[in-house]
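TL;DR need C-alpha cells for one chain.
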Amino acid sequence: MFTAAYTRDGSKLVTGTTGLVQVWNSATCRPLTKELKGDDLDYFETVGFSRDGKRVFAGGDSADYTNVWAVWDSKSGKSVQAVRYGHSAQGYALSPDGTLVAGGGLKLGDTGIWKLPADDK
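>> reply
TL;DR here they are.
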C-alpha cells in the first residue's frame, strides 16, 4: 500500500497501491467496492474522498509518467472522471466547499485544479 485516507466520519477507508484503489468498510475491514483501476496507471500515490464521502479520487502515474487523477463513485465503484496532466501525482487539496480539487505533481508547475463531478441524483 502506498497511500490511504478515511472519510470525514471514519466509516470508509480508501487505499492505493500498484495500479489499484480499494474502498473498505472501516469497522469490518471488508471491501465495499470491487478493486478500482485507473486507465494506464502503474501506481497510485495519493487518495482521498469528497467531503460527503460519495466520491473517491486518486492520483498516480502512468507508464509514461503522466500525472493521472481518477474519480469513482465510492458506493458503486463506477468511474466518473479522469484527468491527465503534468508528472507524478504527489498530493491534493479540496476546496472548502468540496467542489474543486487541486492536484500537485513532482515537477514545479505540475498543478491542476478541476471541478469534481456532481452526484448523480
